[in-house]
Amino acid sequence: MKRRCLYVLLPILVLSLCACGKKELPKPELAGGIRGEQFGIDKNIDESTIDNYLGREDSVYRDMRMLEDPGNYEAIGGDSYLSGFVKGFEVVPYPYLVNVIGLPSEVGETYTGPTLYTEENGHYHANYEESLAILEYYFPKDKVIFLMCGGGGYAGMTKQLLVSLGWDKDKIYNVGGYWYYEGKNKVEVKRTKEDGTTTYDFWKVTYHDIDFSTLTEVKE
Q1: 180: which residues sit within 8 A by CB, 6+ positions away?
Q2: Which residue from 139, 176, 153 is spatially nearest to 61, judged by alpha carbons?
Q3: Backbone angles phi, psi at 132, to 5 degrees
Q4: Is 72 in a helix, a strand, or coil?
Q5: Rounded to whole angstroms, how far apart are CA atoms 143 and 61?
Q6: Distance (Å, rounded) from C-alpha 219 to C-alpha 114?
Q7: Can you tell me the distance from the alpha carbon of 56 to that of 98, in angstroms, rounded to the nearest whole number?
Q8: What domains appear along the chain, each with residue ranges and CATH number?
Q9: pLDDT (tens digit, 9 = 90+) per residue, 120-155?
């Protein structure tokens, strides 16, 4: 009888241990001040706490920067190049998803090439027949989605895009900017060579490009 009870309890015990090993997710909540109001960065899961939520099987991790952004992000203390990333994050450039608006004037003009969507007065119009399918592939609706970028802006814009197109806002977290991350899972891309010049090891990045030439344009 004791052995039979043990066989019944073991699976329950294993499941309990697995559940305890996964940190419970708080409901998305905007941070105070400019971080929440302007950038949409989360209050509870941000650059200082994201390490506690990495490696979840129920989640995907997306960095929204370009490898090299035409905008002058050095003017606001950042880096126009993707200088590094948090381990586990894959890059899907936000400027390829929708036209970029609302950047600080110091940054100047960023990417102006083709995009999956065009935003007009808060409404998003698909430019290609495959636009929604591409978003659903990179940002699966049945997963928790953690978004990051350089300073938090592109990540916040991505959440706004997804929610407007039907994604669950309570399953998407804008965790802020890599420029402010000081955790233990930093992967350095920017490197100074022996001759003193700077190079970027983009081969370290899991990068998702979009070949617009293969897509079918939506006709007006």
Answers
A1: 47, 151
A2: 139
A3: -65, -40
A4: coil
A5: 10
A6: 15
A7: 28
A8: 24-214 (3.40.250.10)
A9: 988 999 999 999 999 999 999 999 999 999 999 999
Structure tokens that stand for 118 in this block = 């065009």
39 burial class (0-12, 13-18, 19+ CB within 10 angstroms)?
A: buried
Q: Residue 172: beta bridge partners? A: 145
Mean pLDDT of 177-190: 96
Buried b (16+ CB within 10 A) or exposed e, 195-219: eeeeebeeeebeeeebeeeebeeee
For residue 114, what are the contacts with CB-CB under 8 A and spacing of at least 6?
96, 127, 212
Q: What is the pLDDT of residue 35?
A: 92
Strands 123-126 and 117-120: antiparallel
First to last CA, the chain: 73
